[in-house]
């Protein structure tokens, strides 16, 4: 079977009720990004960071996958599909996607501040004093600004093998994730779905743009690919 790689961003989950990464004023839920999504912010005010992610985690548990999430699962009937997402939610998994790679971590997981490999499932509030088995404070399992993306090499390897690339709901402005599109083989069909496309048809070879929200654009592409 052909390999489909799907790169998804915040616009994929927006129609489920999750806000996009940041508002037009550059704030994220009223906070400066560096206050709540950087090692500097963590070291400055751990309680603020933990409260921020506790609220995001609680919100995530109240929403459900949207039709676009479910439609992408249908592609698995005809293709080998890998979703590489910038999103930290679990909506792809809840919809039934079999192979999901989270570039920026997962909101429903936490990890040790001393041992990166100690990662735990977590659906309740995370507080100061919640320790790992090695007696160090736990933190959100999120890749913050200023930190390396540990599975970037894996994502590149996956993208290089794509026979079809689908990009949904991402501005292609957040690096290094935005650079993944440059690793597809020459001539690979690329489908780009975003209501306000940041690239034009001449940006990449064999590019098709759908200036639509995720639910509408994904339906058009899935119908085309499984017919």
Mind explaining what this structure looks like?
Helices cover 29% and strands 21% of the residues. It starts with a strand and ends with a helix. Helix 5 runs parallel beside helix 8. With 227 residues, it is an alpha/beta fold. The protein has 2 domains: 138 residues, Rossmann fold, CATH 3.40.50; 81 residues, SIR2/SIRT2 'Small Domain' (2-Layer Sandwich). It is built from 8 helices and 11 strands.
Produce the secondary structure layout.
Elements (H helix, E strand, L loop, with lengths): L2 E6 L1 H5 L12 E2 L2 E2 H4 L2 H6 L1 H15 L6 H8 L5 E6 L5 H5 L4 E3 L2 E8 L6 E3 L16 E5 L9 H9 L3 E5 L21 E4 L13 E4 L3 H13 L1
Parallel strand pairs: 1-4, 1-9, 4-5, 9-10, 10-11
Antiparallel strand pairs: 2-3, 6-7, 6-8
Succession of helices and strands: EHEEHHHHEHEEEEHEEEH
End-to-end CA span: 15 Å
Instruction: Kindly report the spatial arrangement of strands forming the biggest sheet.
Output: 5-4-1-9-10-11
Q: Any idea of the CATH topology of the largest domain?
A: Rossmann fold
Strand content is 15-25%
């Amino acid at each position: 079977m052909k390999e489909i790689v799907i790169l998804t961003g915040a616009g994929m989950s927006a129609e489920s009720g999750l806000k996009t990464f940041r508002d037009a004023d550059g704030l994220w839920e009223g906070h400066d990004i560096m206050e709540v999504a950087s090692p500097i912010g963590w070291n400055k005010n751990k309680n603020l960071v933990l409260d921020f992610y506790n609220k995001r985690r609680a919100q995530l548990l109240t929403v459900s996958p949207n039709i676009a999430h479910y439609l992408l699962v249908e592609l698995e009937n005809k293709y080998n599909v890998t979703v590489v997402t910038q999103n930290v939610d679990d909506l792809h998994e809840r919809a039934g996607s079999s192979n999901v790679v989270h570039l920026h971590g997962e909101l429903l997981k936490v990890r040790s501040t001393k041992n990166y490999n100690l990662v735990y499932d977590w659906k309740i509030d995370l507080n100061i004093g919640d320790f790992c088995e090695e007696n160090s404070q736990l933190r959100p399992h999120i890749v913050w600004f200023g930190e390396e993306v540990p599975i970037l090499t894996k994502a590149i390897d996956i993208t290089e093998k794509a026979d079809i690339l689908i990009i949904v709901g991402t501005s292609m402005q957040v690096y290094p994730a935005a650079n993944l599109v440059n690793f597809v083989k020459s001539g690979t069909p690329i489908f780009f779905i975003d209501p306000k496309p940041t690239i034009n048809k001449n940006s990449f070879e064999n590019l098709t743009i759908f200036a639509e929200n995720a639910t509408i654009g994904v339906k058009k592409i899935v119908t085309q690919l499984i017919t």
